[in-house]
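PT: before anyone asks, these are the final sequences, not the draft ones from last week. 522 residues across everything. Please model them as a single complex and drop the result in this thread when it's through.
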Amino acid sequence: MSLFACDFNDRFVDRLPADQQSDNFCRTVNGVAYSFVSPKVTQSPTLIALNHTLAQQLTLATDDPQAIARVLTGNELLPNTRPYAMCYGGHQFGHWAGQLGDGRAINLGQLATPELGLQTLQLKGAGPTPYSRTADGLAVLRSSIREYLCSEAMFHLGVPTTRALSLCLTGDKVVRDMFYDGRPQQELGAVVCRVSSSFMRFGSFQLPAVRGDIKLLNQLVDYAITEDFPHLGQPCKDTYIQWFREISERTCQLIVEWMRVGFVHGVMNTDNMSIIGETIDYGPYGWIDNFDLSWTPNTTDAKGKRYCFGAQPQIAQWNLFQLANAIYPLIEQAEPLNEILTNYAKMYESRWLEMMKDKLGLAQLEPQSDGELFVQLEQVLSECNIDMTIFYRLLASYIPGKSQIESHFLPCFYQDEPTKAMYWPRFEYWISLYCQRLENNSLDDDERARVMNRVNPKFVLRNYLAQQAIELAEQGDYSMIEQLQQVLANPYQEQDGFEHFGAKRPGWAMHKAGCSMLSCSS
Ligand code: AMP
Ligand code: MG
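LR: through. Structure below.
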């Protein structure tokens, strides 16, 4: 009996060229889209968290957790699975890095689901592949919990993302030097099964382009269009341009959503940019506590701040530029690509304004003046050291003329006595501008609050919450993973008994590893 009620197959494997070398050793792989590879057999696979809603949509039978653990760690292969690792390259921190590929991700194949269509199941941390370079192909529990919880939190926030089906311990130990300080430790090995309709990245097209392998480039682009953008029609030069336009639009929308909820990816390398505009590869990401456009969660990025919160829109455009370069040989016209890239900036600006309009509960945008109001708000939020998530919820319930500003907004300040501080007048001044603006707003206070609470979450996966869940799980207590999963499934709703998950970052978490900065070591 199969674990899934629907068929397992894989068009990526069927339609694209495979590596002919079947031995699993690190190497340069030319001219093909992927390599077949067997997942590593592990000591004692154990299921520790399952996404029941997604499991149901994928037709997974959930009555045998041991069978799920065996299959979703790669210890047991279901009929028709031909596991493989994808070949791709990428720019890392602005520099071309050559071949990267699925170094620790193994695709099991595609499920033809009745509800979600074709979905690829991918195991992260299931052992080495030809693309593992100098690393081990494994993942540890801490980073797997972060991926598992965050991808689902993002999904329920309405942000495009790869999904997470399961989290399993492998039973093996994995050695990691978490702080890169020469003190490696043994950690628990884990595997997340993630799910998406496509795991192709910008770097999937960059690698053949850089190698001058136009035939493979063409095959990959045609495959992506036929499979994931079928509405664009038969692949041809014109379709390629339309395809790039749509990727640009989806990427733009993705970043607007990140900025809306205060998500910082942390490693926006081109190999971590999904071709279908999903958030992919949850590594040293972070969530904004105190609003700060210059904040980056990634220790590797602490100096350059290339991937800080406020840089994400421009970095996405830079990445799109690299993708445009890669597909240029198929189009041979720079103008339409340039036009799309230029348009990205305009599109981002107008979508950002719309998004901010909603965050502030305004019925209509006043294009002449609202931009200034929004920019001033960002300045005030960062100068006054204000918690982004809590601020917007408080703003929704603030009633001009009725609420007392000081006591109403006190909970979103990171300082205890904001009135005494020099920044309070600035904050009050902005609130007065907002109140003036509300005089020209057609929504009454109740309607405004409803609109705002639909786009401003009450609950996000605050960095310190994820870290607390990790520390408990490392002691064998998975209850907080379960609780967070449950609360974050309804991020816009108040939830009795779980208010503490919406509280601002406690003082102790300010400089604690995992709560403020994260290393790439995972
Ligand atoms: P990332 O920045 O995490 O997306 O990783 C960049 C590249 O390194 C990708 O090709 C990954 O597959 C690979 N990689 C990251 N961690 C490991 C690991 N532990 N073992 C093998 N490859 C890895
Ligand atoms: Mg990656």
